[in-house]
Design a protein that fits this description.
Layout (H helix, E strand, L loop, with lengths): L1 H14 L6 E8 L3 E8 L4 E9 L3 E11 L5 E9 L2 E8 L1
Antiparallel strand pairs: 1-2, 2-3, 3-4, 4-5, 5-6
Length: 92
């Protein structure tokens, strides 16, 4: 279920700017795995994939990037599993 929280956060970030057009949107959702990617005209991009391990433990990985108000490109790479959400900001 952690992937739902991450997905909700990313979607909120993506749709915060109503002026943005969707340039790319791909998704595939199955019972035991999923993946999606999107790119918006306001320089927001995200990809995420996950797989169900054991009974209800999801292992999710992904990244997203956006341009901060100061003009700097911010990129976050993350994993999420039974131990929590593990983000890492990387130089883009």
């Amino acid at each position: 279920m952690k992937f739902v929280i991450v997905l909700a956060c990313l979607l909120a970030l993506a749709y915060a700017n109503e002026e943005a057009d969707v340039l790319k949107s791909d998704s595939e959702v199955n019972v035991e795995d999923f993946k999606y990617a999107y790119e918006l005209s306001n320089h927001i991009k995200a990809i995420q994939s996950g797989v169900l391990k054991e009974h209800d433990n999801w292992v999710v990985s992904g990244e997203y990037e956006y341009v901060a108000p100061n003009g700097q490109l911010v990129k976050v790479v993350y994993t999420a599993d039974e131990t929590g959400y593990h983000p890492k900001v990387v130089e883009a």
